[in-house]
Design a protein that fits this description.
Its cofactor is Mg(2+); Mn(2+). This protein is α+β, with helices and mostly antiparallel strands. It has twelve helices and 15 strands. The protein folds into two domains: about 120 residues, no CATH class; about 280 residues, Phosphatase 2c, domain 1 (4-Layer Sandwich), CATH 3.60.40.10.
Length: about 425
């Protein structure tokens, strides 16, 4: 990575030879106008990653660079960026808000400072992941009026948070928003940050995830109250930690594992008509009714979500988790929203993936490009074909797919070639 990183730094400092002046437009737009101290971590990392990704920074290097810049930002006195306490005074507890554009200008300047220093004296960096996980991602609005899905692919989890405990981690998430994209955007920005701060991350990953989901839901509740937001989001997350695969979920987005060409059930999605979910809602005094589909109190078609505060606790913010030991014979894990799984059965996935892998690629096409040298993507071609299949099978919803190969795709093709099966 070092040579790639040095080349990137050369280009970057040529574009940003000095810090940004106060009158210069930011090169990337912050997510919010106002940000709490707790939200600053996730929003700054999001801003930095977007800036560096758009300029072709190597994945592990951009994570390390953002972590270094954030550490320097948090060493500053941020009180000059505090917003006046007026509209926020009706909060149950006083929340200090920062002027986002001003504080993010300071963050970007810290990032530029780090880049300039590293260009002059390249540092000893954190170890990069030794196990490359090829990944294929594709998302479409489909026939819906708006795209309300968000996704995260973070093979550089440790590097982004400066974790040096010797256990490699990769994080992947799909969030399926409804009633707007705000909740999905918020979860995609903050949930992995909340997870990184859990003390039980290594010893009890399921508890860490449940706490991270709950904390993110509580954080979004404060934002939703002060900004009058009403959206919600389901979510499914996979954390690959050493030889352990943890799935955490709220709602009806799903993840499945394929091992030796066979789909393995990892989870049971939360749906209002699932018997235990229906019983839970009714025990709380709510109801589940059929109105074109099964709905909680005649409103939401999901029984668990981040957000949807007008229907809490019936629409629960409590996540479920499952933990699977990786034995080395796993092919891949697939994460997708219900727009995919409403049209495609999990048992169909293995053949669909193999069919997509066997399609000839166009070397001149970015979409059909072979495995990229970064080791983190096979391009969107495989996921794109799966999305196309779901659409052809009748899905009209937003569709997002993340396909994470636990062994190189070439091995799967070689195995098919040897056995003669598809």
């Amino acid at each position: 990575m070092e040579e790639e990183a040095r080349c990137f730094l050369g280009r970057f400092v040529e574009e940003f030879p000095t810090v940004l002046e106060d009158d210069r437009l930011l090169p990337v737009t912050p997510l919010s106008h106002k940000v709490s101290m707790e939200e600053l971590h996730g929003e700054s990392l999001d801003l930095g990653l977007r800036l560096l990704d758009a300029r072709g920074a190597p994945a592990s290097f951009r994570a390390i660079l953002c972590e270094a810049a954030l550490s320097k930002l948090l060493q500053n006195d941020l009180s000059p960026f505090h917003c006046p306490q007026e509209a926020e005074s009706n909060q149950e507890e006083e929340i200090v808000l920062l002027q986002s554009e001003a504080v993010q200008r300071l963050f970007l300047n810290k990032l530029i400072d780090v880049a300039l220093a590293w260009h002059q004296n390249f540092p000893t960096l954190l170890p990069i992941p030794s196990r490359f996980l090829h990944c294929s991602i594709h998302a479409i609005k489909n026939t819906r009026r708006k795209m309300e899905d968000k996704h995260v692919a973070l093979a550089e989890f440790n590097q982004l948070f400066g974790i040096q405990d010797g256990v490699e981690r990769a994080y992947y998430a799909v969030f399926d928003g409804h009633g707007g994209v705000d909740a999905a955007t918020y979860a995609a920005t903050h949930l992995h940050v909340a997870l990184s701060k859990q003390k039980t991350l290594q010893s009890d990953t399921a508890t860490a995830f449940k706490s991270a989901f709950k904390h993110t839901d509580d954080m979004f509740k404060s934002k939703a109250k002060r900004e009058r937001l009403r959206s919600g989001t389901t979510g499914v997350i996979v954390l690959i930690q050493g030889h352990e695969l943890t799935v955490a979920w709220l709602g009806d987005s799903q993840a499945i594992l394929v091992r030796n060409g066979q789909s393995v059930t990892l989870m049971d999605p939360h749906k209002p008509d699932r018997e235990d979910e229906k019983q839970r809602i009714e025990d709380l005094g709510g109801c589940v009714t059929f109105m074109g589909c099964w709905r909680v109190n005649g409103t939401y078609a999901v029984s668990r979500a981040i957000g949807d505060f007008d229907q809490k606790p019936y629409v629960s913010g409590d996540a479920d988790c499952s933990v699977t030991q990786l034995l080395g014979d796993e092919d891949y894990v697939l994460l997708a929203c219900d727009g995919f799984f409403d049209a495609v059965k999990p048992s169909e996935v293995p053949n669909l993936v193999l069919d997509a892998l066997q399609q000839p690629s166009d070397p001149e096409s970015r979409v059909d490009a072979p495995l990229e040298q970064s080791g983190h993507t096979v391009g969107p071609r495989v996921a794109q074909q799966l999305v196309g299949y779901a659409k052809a099978a009748g899905s009209s919803d937003n569709i997002t797919i993340i396909l994470v190969f636990l062994r190189p795709p070439e091995q799967l093709l070689a195995q098919v070639s040897t056995t003669g099966t598809t």
